[in-house]
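Page 47, continued from p. 46.
Same chain as before, 69 aa.
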Amino acid sequence: MAKNKLPFAEGASIHRPPMFSGINYQFWKIRMKIFIESIDQGIWDVIINGPYTPKHTIENVQVDKPWTQ
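Result:
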């Protein structure tokens, strides 16, 4: 069976993330950032800032808000 010779490497798709081959990290990093942001800007915000934890104030102290509220 002949191997499919596409003009681009695996991961050059809008449905699959870019594959890191171990070389040219700076190029891959930019492509991965664009891929993640294209799915949802909120996902990239979580990667950079960490997850958002809802809080409320009780007696001038910030405490985590339970998910049930």
